[in-house]
Amino acid sequence: MKHIPLSIPHLSGQEMRYVTEALETNWVAPLGPNVEAFEAAMKTYSGSAATLATSSGTAAIHLALATLGVTAGDDVFCQSLTFIASTNPIRYVGARPVLIDSEPETWNMSPAALRRAMIQAATRGRLPKAVIVVHLYGVVAKIEEIAVICEEYDVPLVEDAAESLGSTINGRMTGTFGTFGIYSFNGNKIITTSGGGMLVSNDTRLIERAFYLATQARQPVLHYEHTEVGFNYRMSNVSAGIGRGQLEVIEERVEARRTIFERYVRAFETVDASHYQQEIEGSRANRWLTALTLPGGMQQRDALIQQLQQKNIEARPAWKPMHLQPVYRDVPYITANEEDVSRRLFEEGICLPSASQMSFTDQALVIRFVRQGLVEDVRRNVQL
Fold it and tell me: How many CB atoms lie within 10 A of CB 108?
């Protein structure tokens, strides 16, 4: 049976032109015309004042924290329900993550939990040096509320928009509400450069500082002079060429994934598996992945994933929250109340195939086997 992947690159056909230009002109190293053009195009598309192409989204988060001066002994608040790349850069700079629970509507950082964490931190006289919020699976967080809280406490906000390029709220792109925003162009994202990221900001001076750190913190003198430790985080001209071709079709990719999501919603209306991430008023999610919860919890979810794997269909559990990861079990975790929302979403959550080039027939197969798996699970429970 044909393999149906979760999410894979979807080329536009224009990438070859830009990559060929890079090869023919021997611009295959970091920097170059494609990098500059890709940064300019992302500046226009995102509405950011300044952009910096990086080797990965993780590198962009690391640069954001380093540029903000986050260092050993500092705290950084970060959403717990996310991929580990959101959290690891906090450790790169020697700081301590403080993990924040999600709310059940968008599955993203809970403003109530964030405010509770801020009050506790202010009482101790230890406010965080930054807050990292994630737009999970391309669904917009309650970013306006979160931004207000950060502004109240004068704490920089970093938006991890790795999964949400093309997602908007009130006409404004995710990644542009904070001091910094980051995007990822990893191979499974809505557009790709094969591997790469982008750091954006409305403060050009911050991007200038990040550029300096991303290029080994080299001083502007004739010889190689370094007064600080820097990084090798710039994107190659070849990768940027791929990105240019991809960015030209971003809106088509968003619409394709939104259509796939809408088909799933209609197909599962009669199945008790219809709790999806909600779009808050005025927002448009890119629906990078369709994620939903199953009422039977982890046992039902894992059984369904295994059944889909037997049909050569790729599905995944929702991200395992950072406060449940062995590497982060020793850090604080703040919830809005007694309920651990992130844990529940992980235990019940499943991501279904959402590749933008997925055919109607392929999606129909996924829907058929998901329904079949859920019905079989109900039957087993009745027999028990």
Answer: 26
Burial 5-32 (b: 16+ CB within 10 A, else e): ebbebbebebbeebbebbeeeebeebeb
> How many CA atoms does the CB half-sphere of 166 hold within 13 Å?
25
In the three-class reduction of DSSP (H, G, I as helix; E, B as strand; rest coil), residue 265 is classed as helix
The amino acid at residue 206 is: L
pLDDT (0 to 100) of residue 378: 45
* Residue whose entry in the numeric block shows the structure tokens 């001091």: 179
CB 213 within 8 A of CB 63: yes
pLDDT at position 156 over 70? yes
Query: 251: which residues sit within 8 A by CB, 6+ positions away?
Result: 166
Judged against a pLDDT cut of 50, whether residue 81 lies above it is answered with: yes
* Own/partner long-range contacts of 327-330 (Cβ < 8 Å, ≥24 apart): 327/84, 328/87, 328/97, 328/99
Backbone angles phi, psi at 54, to 5 degrees: -125, 170
Digit-coded pLDDT (tens) for 102-132: 999 999 999 999 999 999 999 999 999 999 9
The pair of structure tokens assigned to 283 is 């927002």
Would you place residue 295 in the very low, low, confident or very high pLDDT band (cuts 50, 70, 90)?
confident
**Cα(63)–Cα(229) distance, rounded to whole angstroms?**
12
Q: In what order do the strands lie in the sheet with 180-184?
A: 50-54, 197-201, 180-184, 157-160, 130-134, 75-79, 96-100, 333-334
Q: Which residues contact 124 (CB under 8 A, 6 or more apart)?
A: none
- pLDDT, tens digit (0-9, with 9 covering 90-100), for 88-103: 999 999 999 999 999 9
Tokens of 54: 């990086």
Q: Is-contact 253 45, C-beta < 8 A?
A: no
